[in-house]
Each structure stands twice: as structure tokens, then as C-alpha cells.
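User: Before I run my own analysis I want an independent prediction to cross-check against. Here's the chain; please return only the C-alpha cells and, at the end, one sentence I can use as a sanity check.
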Amino acid sequence: MINFSVVHNSLFILLSIIFILSTINPLKHRYEPIIDIEPQIIKIKDGKYVKIDYIIYSQIIDSKLYRKKKNENIMKLMRMKSLYILERIIRNMPYKTIVDQREYIENNLQTQLNDSLRKYGIGVERVALKNILEDSVLVSCVDKSSNETHKCTSEEVGDIPSYVDDHVRTDYISIFQYNDQIIKSRNKDIYDQVEVGKKYNARIKILIHNDQTENYDVAEIISGIKK
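Assistant: C-alpha cells:
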């Protein structure tokens, strides 16, 4: 005769063990397929610096090989190797070339990082550069202005339409001189930090459109320049 009480207790213990094991990560360092690399300052051509952040998309291509390396911090290793490779790729490039060659840099970094990590069972599918900012250039604020735009909606009171001013938008525009470029910034934080006629250390970025035209923008004011 089956003792259901014993069976019930044994089943309960077995399920408890399975649950506990399922909550334990067998790897010391959890694998993350997408790694967001924080902004890095890298020295480039002519003694200048660039600030770059990027994303690494990867996957485990050999689970047995990856498990052999489970005691190593693969995520930290990926960050260190990717930064080392990126520095070698761009160190002899001027800033504008780095911006123009974004796709080449992404593909080159992906290929070299993938080759470097295959022995850990990791394959790198893609690398995406996010922001590429020239670190600390000199700009002059030549003008600034704020303009209010009113949006009106109509309401009918009887047969007479009336217009209600229900929305006001303010544009904050700062205009800078950077070498031979005139840069127009629409960032309120930038507007609040600058005064016309003064010079600033700033970070700029180049925006490349689908038709290959370029626009410069001031990404950040670092400090003012004392006369």
C-alpha cells in the first residue's frame, strides 16, 4: 500500500530543491548580450581628445568554451579590450575623419573584438557608436535670443468664434563662432550658461544627415575663458 504522506513529503522536498537550484546563477559573472559603454576620453591626432560612448551587441557562440571561462569577468574584459582596440583605430585620426568614418570604425572594432573574444565563447555581432564629441574646443558666443511662439485654438461662443491662446513655446537660441563655422544651438541649458561676446571651452558634435550635409552643434559648455 502506497503511503501518500511520504510521497507528498518527498515530492515537496524535490520541488523545493529544484526551485532553489533555479535561483542560483551557475556563473560567477552573469553574461549580458548588450553592453552600454560609458563615455570614454581618447587622445587622437594633433594632441586633441575625443569623447565617445558606444554599445556592444554580442552572443554566446560556444557554451562549453564560455563555461570554462566562467570564473573570469567577461563583461569587464569586453570593456577593456574594446577600449584598447578603439584607441588603436582612431588615435591617428583627426576629429572630422572619425565622424565621417563612423561606419568603418564600427565594423573594424566589431571584427577585431569578435576575433579577440572567440576564445571565450563570445561572438560580437555589432558595435554602434553613439556620441562622438570633440573634447574641449574654443567657441565664441556672438549672439543669443529667445522667441515666444503662441498657439491659438478657436472656440465658438454662439455664432461668434473666439480664439484662446492656450500654448506658448519659447525657443532659446545661442549662436557661436567655431573656427570658420557658425553654430546655432537651441539648447536652453547652453543658453543659460553663456553671454554674448565671451569665449568658452566647449564640446561640439557634428550631425551628418542622409544627404551627407553636416551641421555642427554645441553639446556642452565646459568652462568660460578668462580675459
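Sanity check: The CA atoms of residues 200 and 225 lie 5 Å apart.
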